[in-house]
Design brief:
24% strand; 10 helices; Sulfite Reductase Hemoprotein, domain 1; Alpha-Beta Plaits; alpha+beta; 20 strands
């Protein structure tokens, strides 16, 4: 790991970024998956060398917060557990998101894990790709029932069937809920990723760090024309990914094998402590396959649990203060770090979210953001409370016709006033825009 770490505002495993509550270390998980032993290593590192706060991120990774002077010891411990990149320069570009149920989902069109491993190996071993921004990201969707379809990526691929063949639709600077711009065969999935990334690096100026920046001045068709000279692209029209079911990341759900289920649980507001993480790891050893999978909903799954053991797993997760019922208000609420740990935050969002949860009679998907950066949510939530000062928020409702958080509904609300408006909205939902 002798390669110099480039400067960036994004934390990584090898680059600790300072915040109000200390250093932040981001641990990128291959496909969101981590072994129980690795989970113990994360818990130990957070306990020994930091403040004990562990965050599940919205891209299925983990973060340790509150790191003090012993950051080198923390990094060494995580590297020894096999949680690092193959090369130091490869850490930033390991941004490949899969479904949390890759390989076990009952509706998947193919098991994405082998292709994902091939892509991750190339991202880390191809020196040219180390020039990509630490935010440049790829999504591989195998058609699973549990899939995040709203997070924007620089390149996304999504499996579908046509004339008896499984193909990969793809799009640029968007997400699988958008319309695709082309398709390739499964055999060309890896070649497509390589070709798109190489072409982006050839065409983009240094300040154009994301695909959307390049496409603001280069027409999509012009990019696709050049891409077609590198590999065969199939035409595709009017294809759009079907949405998955809600709340499949919480509770007990069947896998592709009749006797097996996975069990999903939500750490309240995406925050775990070492005891919670160790407890989940122990349950995975005892009842699952010895692994955990983290999700873009800031939750975790225990895969490959037998149906007869599911209730024991649920009880074990509850005992460790993890939420296993989608009807619990905190289970569908997200909040950034807020003023307790972030210098840009304008309110104590996590405390405010906990108060809000006590005021809502039923669970609602609400996002509390301490500033306009929206660090806790990579997608637009149905309702967003944007902090304007301590304890005061503007309320937005999602609107496909509006950028950002959606339509501004009310300004300068206390949490109590916001709760009243959210309750009214739940009783009389706003009409969806056409």
């Amino acid at each position: 790991m002798s390669t110099a770490i480039r400067p960036s505002a994004c934390p990584g495993l090898l680059r600790i970024v300072q915040a109000l509550d200390g250093g932040i270390c981001r641990i990128k998980l291959d496909g969101g998956s981590i072994s129980a032993d690795q989970a113990d290593a994360v818990a130990n590192a957070a306990e020994q060398f930091a403040g004990g706060a562990i965050e599940a991120t919205n891209r299925a990774n983990l973060q340790i917060r509150g790191i003090g002077q012993q950051s080198a010891a923390l990094i060494d411990g995580l590297l020894a557990a096999g949680l690092g990149p193959r090369t130091a320069a490869g850490d930033d570009v390991r941004n490949l998101m899969l479904s949390p149920t890759a390989g076990i989902d009952r509706l998947m069109r193919f098991d994405t894990r082998a292709l994902a491993e091939q892509i991750l190996d190339t991202l880390q071993s191809h020196p040219r790709f180390h020039e990509l921004s630490a935010k440049f990201a790829v999504q591989l969707d195998g058609g699973e029932a549990l899939a995040m379809l709203e997070h924007h990526h620089d390149l996304w691929l999504s499996a579908f069937a046509r004339d008896g063949e499984t193909l990969l639709a793809f799009g640029l600077a968007g997400c699988p809920s958008d319309r695709a711009v082309g398709a390739v065969s499964l055999e060309n999935g890896h070649a497509l990723v390589v070709a798109v990334l190489e072409l982006f690096l050839e065409l983009a100026r240094p300040e154009q760090t994301r695909m959307r920046h390049l496409l603001e001045e280069l027409p999509m068709l012009a990019f696709l024309e050049q891409l077609r000279t590198r590999l065969p692209i199939k035409a595709i029209s009017n294809w759009q990914r079907l949405p998955g079911a809600d709340d499949l990341h919480i509770g007990v759900h069947p896998q592709g094998t009749d006797t097996l289920v996975y069990v999903g649980a939500v750490p309240p507001l995406g925050r775990l402590d070492p005891t919670m993480l160790r407890g989940a790891a122990q349950l995975a050893r005892q009842f699952g396959d010895g692994s955990l999978r983290f999700t873009p909903w800031q939750s975790l799954l225990l895969p490959n649990v037998t149906q007869t053991d599911a209730n024991q797993v649920i009880e074990g997760l509850k005992q460790r203060h993890l939420l296993t019922d989608a009807a619990e208000p905190l289970a569908r609420m997200i909040a950034c770090t807020g003023t307790n740990g972030c210098g840009k935050g304008l309110a104590d969002t996590k405390s405010d979210a906990r108060l809000l949860a006590t005021l809502l009679p039923q669970a609602q998907s609400v996002h509390l953001s301490g500033c306009t950066r929206s660090c806790a949510a990579a997608h637009c939530a149905p309702a967003t409370l944007l902090a304007v000062s301590a304890g005061q928020y503007d309320l937005y409702f999602r609107d496909a016709a509006q950028p950002g958080f959606g339509t501004l509904h009310a300004r300068n609300l206390t949490i109590e006033a916001a709760a009243a408006l959210l309750i009214d909205a739940a009783r009389s939902p706003l009409p969806e825009p056409p």
